[in-house]
Amino acid sequence: MPDTFVVVIVGLGSVSLLLHRDHPRLTTAFTTVCALALALEGIQLNPLLQAPCLMSLFLLALRTDRRTARIGAFTATTTLLATTLIHDPESPWGLVIIGMASWTLLPGAVGDAVRSNTEYLAAAEARAELAEHTREEEALRRVSEERLRMARDLHDVVAHHIALAATQARTTKYLMLHHPERAPEMMENLCDSTDEALRELRATVGLLRQRGDTDSPRDPAPGLAQLPDLLGSFERAGLSVDVTTEGEAQPLSPGMDLTAYRVIQEALTNVTKHAGTTSAGVHLAYTRSWVTITVVNDGRPGVSASRPAHVSGYGLIGMRERAQSVGGRLQAGPGAGGGFTVTLGLPTHKTAQHPSAEEVPHQ
Asked: Long-range contact list for 72-77, CB < 8 A, 24+ apart?
């Protein structure tokens, strides 16, 4: 009879483990009651007889939270330990307590460790996926910014030199018909413009070459130091540019310097193409932390330096993007008395505070 009872109780406890996935707490309570029934019958418990209860404690720790697992392990340990000591008071208490506590608490600790490790691995995998996704987004953002920067550079270089070459070619045609003795000089200027266009295109496109390509140009990026050469190219195309400076010149970072050069280049190119005038002005006003560059022309009323007043082209868009990329501001629009005005404000230092209304225009 006792053997049959043990087999039935252990069997019921083992079968109940099949329900542990959906009912972990109830299954743990049932297997604990099964072990308690054996102890109440005076049967000495061992790990084999406690196997269903121990397995349920392990699964409870694996599939629930730590607090629930600890409560289940503590309840099962104290209940079985108290029942064993009450029904067998002559047994060595120390050995019973150590043995019972060790076997009953161990499954919960192992299950909690396995669950914590699984959660850690899942969290690490999620972090890795997030980092990979973030890296991909950052790479796409950088590629987009680089493409936009290259598009601006190519537009500035091509538009400037093609506009000058077209103007010089039309002038050469006119001179050949009416003043043939002056045509060779203008033709020489046209050749210089095309040579300069090819050189700048090579310098710009060379940035796309591989790092180890020895053919890549090493010329420094243009800046305000090259402004006289830039104005000379416009002079040869028939556009007279008057340059004035106010305040003490301040050094600009390479990015700011390039932006100032490109905006002046684009603004004067637009004057050549659209303003219908032979003169323009460039004014540089320096303060302690900001420089304001103004390009003006006295072209036909209602005609902008880039396009007719109601049209916005890539030239103005590119100038605004350049200004914003380095923390500057750009304002462009028809002048009060005709023509067009482009005003660029740039900080002379990276740590410069926001300018006042008198220092730089608002968009």
From this structure: 72/25, 72/28, 72/108, 73/104, 73/105, 73/107, 73/108, 73/109, 75/32, 76/28, 76/32, 76/35, 76/104, 77/101, 77/104, 77/105
Q: Furthest-apart CA pair in the chain: how many Å?
A: 132
Tokens of 119: 């959660």
Tokens of 310: 């109601």
User: Whole-angstrom distance between the N-terminal and C-terminal Cα of the chain?
Assistant: 96
Length of the chain: 363
Round to whole Å and give the CA distance between 96 and 178: 122
The residue whose two tokens read 């049209």 is 311
CA dist 97 and 309 (Å) reads 94
pLDDT in tens, 122-172: 888 888 888 888 888 887 787 777 777 777 777 666 666 777 777 778 788
pTM score, two decimals? Answer: 0.48
Long-range (24+ apart) CB contacts under 8 A made by 194-198 are: 194/161, 194/165, 196/161, 196/233, 197/157, 197/158, 197/160, 197/161, 197/162, 197/165
Per-residue confidence (pLDDT) for residue 282, from 0 to 100? 92
Q: Which of 294, 304, 287 is nearest to 349 (CA)?
A: 287
Q: Given CA atoms 35, 36, 38, 42 in this order, what sign does their dihedral have?
A: positive
Contact 72, 107 (CB under 8 A): no
pLDDT digits (tens, 9 = 90+) for 251-284: 888 888 888 888 898 888 888 877 777 888 999 9
d(CA 85, CA 99): 12
pLDDT digits (tens, 9 = 90+) for 97-111: 776 777 788 788 888
